[in-house]
Write a structure and sequence with these properties.
By secondary structure, this protein is α/β, with parallel strands linked by helices. The chain is built from five helices and four strands. The protein has a four-stranded mixed beta sheet with strand order 1-2-3-4, sandwiched between helices. The model has no long low-confidence stretch (mean pLDDT 90). Belongs to the short-chain dehydrogenases/reductases (SDR) family. GO terms for molecular function: oxidoreductase activity.
Length: 142
C-alpha cells in the first residue's frame, strides 16, 4: 500500500509543487490534470456502481480517493490564481496495472482514454474546472 501511495498521491503532489513556480510565470492559463480513477470515487463505491462494484483493491481505491482530495486542495489553492484543475479518469484501459487490463477483459486502448485528455489540456472543458471528469465526457462524484 505504501508504494501505491507514493505512486498515486505523493508523486503527483510533488510534481505540482515543483512545477508551480514555473506555472505561475506562464502566459497561458495553467492546468493541472490528476489522472484518477472511478474506483477512487467514494460515492460510486458506496452506491454499488456496476463498473467498480467487483473491483477489489483497497490500496488502489484508497490512493485514488486520496488523489481526489489532493485535487480538491489544489482547486482551492491554485484556482484562486485562475488555474484550471481537474481529476480525470481515462476509463478501463489496457495496462500493466493488473492481469485484467487486457483487450480480452474489455479494456480499451490507452489512446481512447487519453484522447479526451487533450480537450482538457486545450481548455475545451475549462467550464468544468474543479470537477472529476471521465473519458465519456461526464463527471464522476467525488
Amino acid at each position: 500500500m505504501r508504494q501505491s501511495f507514493e505512486t498515486n498521491c505523493i508523486g503527483p503532489l510533488l510534481v505540482v509543487d515543483e512545477f508551480a513556480p514555473l506555472l505561475k510565470k506562464s502566459i497561458t492559463t495553467p492546468r493541472i490534470v490528476n489522472v484518477s480513477s472511478g474506483a477512487g470515487s467514494i460515492t460510486r463505491r458506496l452506491d454499488g456502481s456496476p463498473s467498480v462494484a467487483n473491483f477489489k483493491s483497497v490500496a488502489y481505491r484508497s490512493t485514488k480517493a486520496a488523489l481526489n482530495m489532493i485535487t480538491a486542495e489544489q482547486v482551492i489553492e491554485f484556482g484562486e490564481l485562475g488555474w484550471k484543475i481537474f481529476a480525470y479518469c481515462p476509463g478501463f484501459t489496457i495496462s500493466n496495472l493488473s492481469s485484467l487490463n487486457t483487450t480480452a477483459s474489455g479494456a480499451k486502448p490507452t489512446s481512447e482514454g487519453a484522447s479526451p485528455l487533450v480537450d482538457i489540456i486545450n481548455g475545451k472543458r475549462d467550464a468544468e474546472h474543479g470537477k472529476f471528469l471521465n473519458e465519456k465526457g461526464d463527471q464522476y462524484p467525488w
